[in-house]
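Box 3.1 A note on notation
Throughout this textbook, protein chains are presented in two layers. The first layer is the amino acid sequence; the second is a token string describing backbone geometry. Keep the layers aligned when reading.
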Amino acid sequence: MDTLDRRKLLATEPNPDGTLDYLAALEGEIAPLKGCPGATASIGLVYVPDKAILAPASFSRYLEALSKETWDSLEGVAVTVLGDINNEVVARWVRVAVSAEPVLLPGVSAHTVMAEDRQPNWDNPALLSGLKRI
């Protein structure tokens, strides 16, 4: 699936209150890396909406489409999702975290990639201070 078709799966709705900074979060799973049939990777999305919010049902369809692609790395998944969310939702702030099951990497107990972006001049340290880092 090409980039534009994949991004079209991310439907948005108007933000119910664009004057507030608040966190919205969605989580799901995809089939991750090539050569690892049956295994999954978790994707967590947390964002501060601006003019639009992401329709949760569309995130589910989007993850289904990602599962049909072949991924060489979790890093590739994370930056792809971040770019797609930045393009379609245009959040004030967004974080994407992708984690693989430990069974995929013998001897490695965890593999997580976190990608983050924000609009220029936006900052709300009090809102973001309670979020868990990697």
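The chain has one domain: 3-120. The two ends are 30 Å apart (CA to CA).
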